Each structure stands twice: as C-alpha cells, then as structure tokens.
Amino acid sequence: MDDLVDSGTKIAPSAHVSNKAEIGNGSTIEHGAVIGEKVRIGPNVRIGAYTVIEGRTTIGNNCNISHHCCLGAPPQDLKYKGEDTELFIGDNNVIREFATIHLGTATGHGKTVVGNNCFLMAYIHIAHDCSVGSNVIMANAATLAGHIEVHDNAILGGLTAVHQFTRIGKLAIVGGCSAVSQDVLPFSKVAGNHAMTYGLNSIGLRRAGFSSESILILKKAFRLFFSSKLPRKEALDTIQKEFGHLQEIAYFLSFIKSSKRGVCKKVR
C-alpha cells in the first residue's frame, strides 16, 4: 500500500478507486478493492482486500470492513430498474468477510440503512430497504430479506433468516438457525422454525443496565400479554394502566399496536 493520497490515506496500487469517489483522511484501501464513483468513505476507515463498494454508498467514520465484502450492489428485486438509490452505513461498524449489503429500491424507502457500532459477522446479508439500528449484532450468515427493521441493541444468531417486512424489537435476541416470519417483541428472546417467544431477555437487559424494578415490570407485562386469559386489547389496556409510566412499556405497547405481521407466539 504505497500510494498515499493525503493526510495518511493509503490506497494499494492494485486497488481500483474512481477519481470521483470521496475517501476520508486516514483511510486504508487494500489490494484489489474496487470503489465506485458515487461512493463516499469517511475518515479512518479500513477497506479490506477485494471488497467491492458500488452505487450511491456512504460509509461513516472508523469502520473496519474486511476482505471480499460486497456493499452497495443492486437490490435483488425484479422491480428494480437501475434507479439511483442509496446505502448508508454509519460510524464505528465492523463488517466481516463476505458480507453483502444492498442498495434500496425506488418502490421501497430508496435507502438501506445501517446505524452505528454494529458488529456484522461473516457472510451476513442485509437486503434492500432494510433499516438496521445501532449496536446490532448479526452472527455468521444471518440473513435479512427486504424492508426489515432491526431496532437498537438486537442480536441475531448465526444462520437466522428473517422474512421481508418483519421487525426485530430493541434488545431482542434471536437464537441461531431460526426462521423469523413475524415481529419479534422488544426485550424478548425467540428461537425456532418458525420462531417462537421464550420470554424476556433478562440477561441482555441486565447487561444493558436495566434496573431490577424495570425488569420485573417487563416480566409482568410479558405475563399479562402472553399468559393471561384476557382478550388482547384488554390485556394491552391493563398493561398501559398498571405500567404505562415506564418508557420501555410505552415502546413495548406501541410496537405491538403497530405490528402488521403479528408477533412471535409464546412457546407452549
């Protein structure tokens, strides 16, 4: 990597970087990487060998992108006709080898988004128009179909597949090899094919700094929602009345009420 662009930026002689691309100070582009003309890369980013970044792709600061990744490729959508759509990746993300993240579509949001501080392991796939929050972990070969929302601090186990238009709530954990076809409740743990809810992600909540009181309230809310004999609307109204003062409960209730695919059922 002998070619020094400016301010410590290094581009390997065998890399193919468009002269229209924007490369931030202190970034490194390794051998054989290909960077397209509409790409914008922030400062202190590492692009591994033979990684291809194309389309209107923006990558934030301090990202570490391993070798043989494919970012900003056209969406795998038959309706896509080459429209000028986007991929946005935030700051401080680790993207491991052979990961693929595609552009959005004109018929969707027009943009695929990854937040900050995510750990995206080898062979993961994020399809068009997905919105992935911050501090998300996707283990090896976890796969998101189009139009999926993954909220902050969620964890997806290896080889998990998520159906299009599904949502994964904040601080949820999805067990490995799961097939997710309905929304995953915030703060829950789910697993299986098809994925079912196994209860509250208590360990994850403690690690995230939730108080014992908040965890106890969330457990009660889960019990009311899944295990009481109340009709769903009445159960939600009871949760609101008893625990609605807690911000996490407000989010929990809003998530359920806005669900279009339904939520993962509780395991029997």
Largest sheet: 12 strands, mixed
Annotated CATH topology of the largest domain: UDP N-Acetylglucosamine Acyltransferase, domain 1
Number of helices: 4
Query: What level of helicity do the residues show?
Result: 10-25%
> Quaternary state, please?
single chain
Number of individual domains: 2
How many strand elements? 29
Radius of gyration: 20 Å
Q: Please identify the structural class as seen in this structure.
A: alpha/beta
- CATH-wise, what's the superfamily of the largest domain? Hexapeptide repeat proteins
- Coarse shape: elongated
Q: CATH top level of the largest domain?
A: Mainly Beta
Low-confidence stretches: none
How is this structure best described in words?
The chain is of the alpha/beta class. It folds into two domains: 3-147, UDP N-Acetylglucosamine Acyltransferase, domain 1; 206-257, Udp N-acetylglucosamine O-acyltransferase, C-terminal domain (Udp N-acetylglucosamine O-acyltransferase, Domain 2). 17% of the residues lie in helices and 28% in strands. The chain is built from four helices and 29 strands. The protein has helices at residues 202-207, 212-227, 232-243, 247-257; strands spanning 3-4, 10-11, 16-17, 22-23, 28-29, 34-35, 40-41, 46-47, 52-53, 56-59, 64-65, 70-73, 86-89, 94-95, 100-102, 111-114, 119-120, 125-126, 131-132, 137-138, 143-144, 149-150, 155-156, 161-162, 167-168, 173-174, 179-180, 188-192, 195-200. The protein has a twelve-stranded mixed beta sheet with strand order 1-2-5-8-11-14-17-20-23-26-28-29. Strands 3-6-9-12-15-18-21-24-27 form a nine-stranded parallel beta sheet, with no helix packed on it. A hairpin with a 5-residue loop joins β1 (3-4) and β2. It is elongated, with a radius of gyration of 20 Å. The chain starts with a strand and ends in an 11-residue tail after the last helix. The mean pLDDT is 96. One of its GO terms (cellular component) is membrane.
